[in-house]
Amino acid sequence: MNTLFIDTSSDNLLLAVSNGEAVFEKKINNVKRHSKIILNKIEELLSSNFMKITDINLILVVVGPGSFTGIRIGVSTANAIAKALNIKIIGLTSLELMMVNEPFGVALKDCKNNNYYFYNKENNKYGVINIENFDLYKQNQKVFLEYKPIKDIFSYVFENKDIFDLKNTVTPFYIKTSSAKKRQS
After folding, report:
1. Which residue has the higher pLDDT, 104 or 53?
2. How many domains does the chain have?
């Protein structure tokens, strides 16, 4: 199965494709405008691995949390490709990807101003925590701060496919209100 992975939830653009045997990835750091480059970079990744967009059978996309605009761009791109190709999508959170193959622990992702998105795998709880309060929370917890290798993410999804919802479209996963919405209130 040819699978495309899209992550625009941070300042970086992470794309990967797997043909079921090998995984090929492309990471572009410090992207200012994901929307300007995402389609070209997907095309480059596919063509450098002798594939076309029509060869894709499944899309994995990071639905959040992270950059509000970045998430919308990645999710919209994945939804458009899935609709055009009549294929399914699996939405994954950026915090889940830090905990692939881990039975317990807490994943953290910076959301600015000394606050962090967190995911506690044991109780399946997401939220925002101030770093000053985190020492109390993390007692007896393993803490994860970055993604597992992309090949491990693909393996985890393929080996546990039955626990994921295959969808026609996915929606962004936001833990907190955007800065723009806060200013409107």
Report:
1. 53
2. 1
